[in-house]
Amino acid sequence: MERVLPVVVAIVERAPARTLFTRFIPPVSVDDAPGRWQAYYRKWPMVTREHLDPNLLDLVPALRRYVPPAQVFDKSVYSAFAAPGLLP
């Protein structure tokens, strides 16, 4: 993080209004997970929102200061390509 964060900040500084941050937001509980993901969250319940510190899901302060004009897109799946709302 120490090496990468300054590079990401430098990129965001060039065009914050054209920047989109994506965040993976896990389900609140194991029961809220879809389909086969329930088995994963049963094994790792500590990564559901009922156990996680909400601050761990937020952008780091060095990037959060660019929102707005940068935008944040929350997704419930890990892959950005599997989040249909991201396309528009």
In a few lines, what is going on in this structure?
The chain has helices spanning 4-14, 37-43, 61-64, and strands at residues 20-24, 71-75. It is an alpha+beta fold. A two-stranded parallel ribbon has the order 1-2.
Structural features, described:
25% of the residues lie in helices and 11% in strands. With 88 residues, it is an alpha+beta fold. Strands 1-2 form a two-stranded parallel ribbon. The longest helix has 11 residues.
Q: Any idea what the shape is?
A: globular
Give the H and E element order.
HEHHE
> In percent, how helical is the residue content?
25-40%
Task: List segments where confidence is low: pLDDT < 50 over at least 5 consecutive residues.
Answer: none
Spatial extent as radius of gyration:
15 Å
How far the N terminus sits from the C terminus, by CA atoms, comes to: 30 Å
The biggest sheet, with number of strands, parallel, antiparallel or mixed sense and barrel status, is:
2 strands, parallel
Alpha-beta content class: alpha+beta
Work out the helix count: 3
The fraction of residues in strands falls at 5-15%
Beta strands, count: 2
